[in-house]
Amino acid sequence: MISKQMQQEIAGSSAIRAMFLEGKEMAKQVGAENVYDFSLGNPMTPVPEQYNQAIIDAVRTENSLELHGYMDNAGYLETRQAVAENLNQRFGTEFEGSHIVMTVGAAGALNVVFKTILDPGDEVLALAPYFGEYRGYVANHQGILREVKPDTATFQPDLEDLQAKITPRTKGLIINNPVNPTGVIYSEATIQNIASILEEKQKEYGHEIYLVSDEPYRELVYDGNTVPFLTKYYDNTFVTYSFSKSLSIPGERIGYIAVSPCMADCSQAVQGLSVANRILGFVNAPSLMQKALVKSMDARTDVDYYDRNRRLIYGKLTELGFTCVKPQGAFYLFIQSPEPEEKKFVEAAKKHHILLVGGSSFSCPGYVRLAYCVSYEMIERSLPAFEKLAEEYRRN
Amino acid sequence: MISKQMQQEIAGSSAIRAMFLEGKEMAKQVGAENVYDFSLGNPMTPVPEQYNQAIIDAVRTENSLELHGYMDNAGYLETRQAVAENLNQRFGTEFEGSHIVMTVGAAGALNVVFKTILDPGDEVLALAPYFGEYRGYVANHQGILREVKPDTATFQPDLEDLQAKITPRTKGLIINNPVNPTGVIYSEATIQNIASILEEKQKEYGHEIYLVSDEPYRELVYDGNTVPFLTKYYDNTFVTYSFSKSLSIPGERIGYIAVSPCMADCSQAVQGLSVANRILGFVNAPSLMQKALVKSMDARTDVDYYDRNRRLIYGKLTELGFTCVKPQGAFYLFIQSPEPEEKKFVEAAKKHHILLVGGSSFSCPGYVRLAYCVSYEMIERSLPAFEKLAEEYRRN
Description:
Chain A is α/β, with parallel strands linked by helices. Chain A is built from 13 helices and 12 strands. In chain A, strand 11 and strand 12 (367-371) form a beta hairpin. Chains A and B meet through helix 1, helix 2, helix 3, helix 5 and helix 6 of A and helix 1, helix 2, helix 3, helix 5 and helix 6 of B. Chains A, B: It comes from Petralouisia muris. Chains A, B: Keywords: Aminotransferase, Transferase.
């Protein structure tokens, strides 16, 4: 038998799989075009041509052994410098290549950070609602994840609860901005307040509390919103990033960690990240993708596509009487369940062939997540189903 | 401060880094052409053109969102099937696509296997001399690595010691074939004996003991040697593989796990590997590389190049009176230190600008590893230095 731990993980994963299979079964019965699957957060806008051309150019022109070969575990210096310069131009930061570690996506980056900072029993805080995978990422390195409860009025974090949950064992706070599953952007005021709280607690306990920022949705923002760049507000910050969404390349597994140049023992931290990259088995971020990135750092997928979807579905759902905070970024809506038990609402939606994910997966029961990274046409086709669903709840 | 664990890891890693920096410093002083760096196991033969063409074709012809997108955590079915068919043709096995999980290289594959099979405190055996990274891979998942002592007469495993080291907590045995650092291939008789021992101990303890095979050097074999394919000898086997060496693409991080179709609870094991791929942050093997592999599964780098190096350096060193087992595969020589303390021999070699790695790194003191994945010309240039080194030891 495989490990007891993994048997539990498999059991935990089976709900998502069950939903996936149910969707497939539904498609067989009523036709794929009549199933409205809003359950998956998969990018679906085109990959920028500039990026594909950069791949072909690299394969054609670079020495192929260098192109596909080992490099420093932190990545090619050329790529690290390109990331640093790009951030400096956009955010007025002062990164050098030596502050950047290339990683196997943001999921890889987060595991590398936690491996670097956590000793067994150390605590990491997460602000509910949060991406459920964080639980596994912290547990992988024998850390303990503690939840800060949600403020469902604004979905900005509950700062009082954050303050109360910090203990002498707290080693990190993970922030996702813009937030999956709400689409909210934590404001500059929020970030400043978080920074003050952490500064104070660092002094009180006499050790670093790291801010670990997970920013795969940083470029997916609407209505001229911007996402505060965290190293400008708090020194002990690791910013983790993935190009999965901005370039629509989630399968390629490429991202980075930017370490604040003002972090305590910054160079030791970077060394730790490199070692973690190696011993966790990532070794390095895929080499060809690193090379292609140098020439497509500013390429972007079609963010307007998601925005058009957002306006359609948000407009319609609020018109129908559903309650949800207006998303400023990412590609999710977080809808309040019209009945206390979200599971029943998920089931009711399913009867209309609408697939949603319960908020309990994000430690925020009573809500459901709708991912609008789907085709505009599917949203249009789904609207009558939402009307019927709303009608049902109006009748009851 | 980063974690105490990571501070120790950094201290452990600094020896390799020190050697690297020393080599650079040496190159400055005496010229790069007069430094003979045999310390790194980095592939250096050309990447097959077929593989680069497969990348360009995939970028040109495939839907780019599918090409760079998410797929099942186990990989594209098309790639998994291509791996299965390729193994079946070459080894007479009976894999289906569902028995293959694509991974971020062999290092990723090993971590995924250990995450799947280990509960805290479970033991994994390794046969000395072995690749030092295994210690980290097992420790990552709270397992305990136990060493089986080397048989330095043949460098086949010491089977008596293997038998003695299996306890009720033993969950796995890791085998590297051909072996880094000796270049020895474990023979069919060795494999059959290991299988019998494990079968017997499984019965005695009433639970599975998994054989975890690490085979990045499988294709690098000489003199018509072959490497026994382990699923044919023992049912509870995971074969982990990387294309790093056979295609000279170590930077791309692409490999797989082949799960014996006869493994106990085989489909649960595969499910566990998929979940582990996800929660460890690999998520999936890089997607473009998976697609390119489908069309270059049989491509090979120039193995004869390594063979030519092997014959030159092995011939010369034995002629000079050094003792080492003749390598049958991989690209390493494991040389007996002519004085009891290998560190002194490493230092003596360094005075002649020859860089070698001490056997203690492989849990086999009294030896040094020489990696001959270097240019033929560098080996030629190094021979006078080896002559002087041998001369020194003859005089003493």
